[in-house]
Amino acid sequence: MDASPSSLLHVESDLALGHLFGLAARKWREARYLGLATAGAEALRRCHEETPDVIILDVQLPDMDGFELIAALQRLARPPRLIVLTACVTPLALMHLAARPVVGLVSKLSGEPDTLRAAFREVVAGRVFFAPDVRERFTAFRRSGTAFHKILSDRELDLLPLFGAGLDDLQVGERCGISAGTAKRHRATVLAKLGLHSTPALMRWAAQAGFVSYADGALRLHRARPEGEAATSMSVAAALPAGGRLRIFRTAADDFSPPDRAAARRWFDPPELATFPDPRSAPSGSWPRESEHEEQ
Fold first, then answer.
1. Could you tell me which residue, 28 or 249, shows the higher pLDDT?
2. Rounded to an integer, what distance in angstroms lies between the CA atom of residue 205 and that of residue 208?
């Protein structure tokens, strides 16, 4: 007699992708498809109400960082087994995944229904599934002696998203309760450890590594540590990079090696970019001049 199907919830902010996945998952005899949640809060509510056995989730969500959602799910009385489906397997994502009870990882570049079904079957059977295109990257990251989380201090990891977003030393100091001089010293140390020579270069690095992204009209900052001080998002209207700063983020995906570049473009050059507020709407003096960045 066949075992009863395991319940499956899909957490994905992209409605089109969610619809396509739902069409496929409803045909899986080994799964009882519960439907789609498009935000973290909705996913948590449905987990309380429906207690899914497995969740397939994207870490790019409109209301919270996906890794914060993973941490919240693990605090449930009956935590679900987790398969992460993501467009960009960034170094920051790999660091989080290494430290969390994720049992499956699939890149959206290989996230066809057959791959996801294979992941679902393995996870339900109590095994781990990492898609071949991300397994090698994950292993290399864990073994690297120069990975950013191994060479930067906790304090530097907390400040890195703020530096990567282009905030100047005074803004970083005000957010974190330190002096501008202390922020400047931390910035210089981070640049030296990463082998970079300017804040614009650090901004590009932070975007590629996953610390900074644009989504849903907001400049989002992603923590390296759950208890870190960096805000998870800030309003673009309140802190939009002026002049060439926006182009740094728009072109950051060009430095990804294929096949990541196409997927990365989705986050760094989204269709909504044309609707972003004009840089002149940012508060006067809220962004340092290019010359100020180069001097730091």
1. 28
2. 5
